[in-house]
Design a protein that fits this description.
Elements lengths: L4 E4 L4 E4 L7 E6 L10 H19 L3 E6 L17 H9 L3 H18 L15 H13 L3 E4 L2 E4 L1 H7 L10 H6 L16 E6 L15 E3 L3 H11 L3 E7 L3 H14 L6 E7 L2 E3 L2 E2 L10 H6 L11 H9 L7 E3 L1 H23 L10 H13 L4 H19 L7 H18 L14 H18 L3 H13 L2 E5 L4 E5 L1
Parallel strand pairs: 3-4, 3-9, 9-10, 11-13
Antiparallel strand pairs: 1-2, 5-6, 6-7, 7-8, 11-12, 14-15
Helix pairs in contact: 2-3, 4-7, 7-8, 10-11, 11-13, 12-13, 12-14, 13-14, 15-16
The chain binds one RNA strand through helix 1, helix 6, strand 9, helix 8 and strand 12.
RNA sequence: GACAAGAUGGCUGAACGGCUAAGGCAACAGACUGCAAACCUGUUUUGUGUAAGUUCGAAUCUCACUCUUGUCUCCA
């Protein structure tokens, strides 16, 4: 079996991965809050963990992958006293909260599909687990780690910290946190500024609320992940993923809640994906520098020179390691577009290669390198570099400069199918030549005329066609068999 | 301010003490072409923020400095 190493954010070290139950893996990833469109930064995180999921499956593990939908409980303003995000958007749009939730959940799923992410095994929603959340609040209270004030329940961080290291994940010390706490409104109910709401009382103006032992209210944001991961993966599970920006306070609170409810430390390996930046700044909803997937596809954004396909973007993201920041720029995307084209073309060439008797390429070693790359903390950029070694082999064989026998050819095909498609989740995009709309038919006519002109050595006409099409942003690409075209 | 991550060639981005610092893009040359483009092949002498230290050996470890980013309030 393969030895996978994972950079564990809890310890800050690269550790050998050992599942709790051999052959089975439980993985939880914090999903989106469905109150508006996802942006590219969100997409990056989900692609990163999609590849983790895909690789573990590829190795033969049975993986239960849980990714939640947050549809309540995300407070908008400071100090746990603001409005619920979903409820606010519902008021603005004059819709039922669940209507908002459904709309953006659908949109999220569509984006995930377009980027070729696999569906998680379970995608639970916070509103579907209100009872379980109430139960966990009760457990925490009964363990003396939470207190109720005016119908709200707060987690007692100081008390927790007496026996447990609050801040262990993010490397913070409680004294530092205390000394740096800002004075905020709406904290008068808390005994300590670090305390956080696990249940929040709702007045009548709140349009999302449920009955509870403490009156009408709604669950705190951090609670749902603790509850749902426990319910579906057990009190301790293998991998917990999420964006770097969730490390504190969200994941820190999650640990505290699980421990506080008597479950012990919930996660063996914490994985955090790094941020996508734009001109060096974090892409975020609040900064307003986020591209929606649609804008990226069409290029309809001031910072974009043109549109890019989903697979170009997926490839672009996988060319960096999930733990590193990745800076988004037109140059970088153009480079990825070219690179992915080259890879796609080589894949098509691979299908047409014919085996020979002798063999001059080392496919076994290539395959081992691919596994090694992924085993080393899911190092997709290295894997891609090795696949480009494969591209060079494919082209050499195609040019007659190298030979491959049947056994190795089959192995090479399985490497590309396995790592390119199954693991990296890329797919070859079809050109516009297969569809049969009118412009394709017109272009066929034009290219046929040009072909005739070349045949009769009427180069003036052939060049005239090429130049005038070029003026329309249409590029003709000649090859030995036929000419193709594309719009720039 | 506290804590965390980081600074690698023209751009992007790997490496986690040990052969010529990966790969992609760009540039240049060749091959192909009627000529180009595309595809293919090859090449790209000064590149690891600054200054010290540990070591036989440092991009990698230690110290200082400069700068960047993130978290500390909702965010993947």
């Amino acid at each position: 079996m393969n030895n996978i190493k994972i950079n564990n954010s809890l310890t800050g070290k690269k550790e050998l991965f050992k599942p709790i139950t051999p052959g089975h893996i439980g993985m939880y990833v914090c999903g989106p809050t469905v109150y508006n469109d996802v942006h590219l930064g969100n997409v990056r995180t989900f692609i990163s963990f999609d590849v983790v999921y895909r690789y573990l499956i590829y190795l033969g593990y049975k993986v239960r992958y849980v990714r939640n939908i947050t549809d309540v409980g995300h407070l908008l303003n400071d100090a746990d006293s603001g409005e619920d995000k979903i409820a606010k958007q519902a008021k603005l749009l004059n819709k039922e909260p669940m209507e908002v939730v459904q709309y953006y959940t659908n949109g999220f799923h569509e984006v995930m599909r377009n980027y070729n992410n696999l569906s998680p095994s379970i995608e639970p929603s916070a509103t579907g687990h209100i009872m379980e959340q109430i139960e966990m609040v009760q457990e925490i209270i009964s363990n003396g780690l939470a207190y109720e004030v005016n119908g709200s329940v707060y987690f007692d961080v100081n008390k927790y910290n007496e026996h447990n290291p609050y801040g262990e994940l993010s490397g913070r010390k409680i004294e530092d946190l205390l000394s740096n706490t800002r004075a905020l409104d709406g904290q008068e109910e808390k005994r300590n500024p670090l305390d956080f709401a696990i249940w929040k009382a709702a007045d009548e103006s709140h349009i999302m609320q449920w009955n509870s032992p403490w009156g009408k209210g709604f669950p705190g944001w951090h609670l749902e992940c603790s509850v749902m991961s426990t319910k579906y993966l057990g009190k301790t599970f293998d991998i917990h993923g999420g964006g770097m920006d969730l490390k504190f306070p969200h994941h820190e609170c999650e640990i505290a809640q699980n421990v506080g409810a008597g479950g012990g430390h919930p996660v063996n390996y914490w994985m955090h994906g790094n941020m996508l930046t734009v001109n060096g700044q974090k892409m975020s909803k609040s900064a307003g520098n986020g591209f929606t997937p649609v804008q990226l596809k069409t290029g309809d954004h001031p910072l974009l020179e043109k549109g890019y396909s989903e697979m170009t973007i997926r490839f672009f993201m996988l060319q960096s390691h999930y733990g590193s920041t990745l800076d988004f720029s037109n140059d970088a995307l153009n480079a990825s577009e070219k690179g992915f084209e080259k890879l796609s073309k080589a894949y098509e060439t691979l299908q047409s290669l014919t085996p020979s008797k002798e063999n001059t390429v080392d496919i076994a070693s290539l395959q081992q390198k691919c596994y090694d790359a992924m085993n080393d903390d899911f190092n997709t950029p290295i894997l891609i570099a090795h696949l480009f070694d494969g591209v060079k082999m494919i082209n050499s064989i195609n040019n007659g400069k190298a030979n491959i026998d049947e056994e190795n050819l089959n192995k090479l095909k399985s490497i590309f199918n396995g790592f390119l498609f199954d693991v990296l989740g890329l797919k070859i995009e079809q050109n516009n030549t297969t569809s049969n709309d009118i412009s394709n038919e017109l272009m066929d006519v034009i290219l046929e005329i040009r072909k005739e002109a070349k045949k009769t050595k009427n180069y003036a006409l052939a060049d005239h066609i090429r130049d005038n099409l070029s003026a329309l942003n249409i590029t003709i690409k000649d090859s030995k068999e036929k000419s193709t075209w594309e719009i720039n």
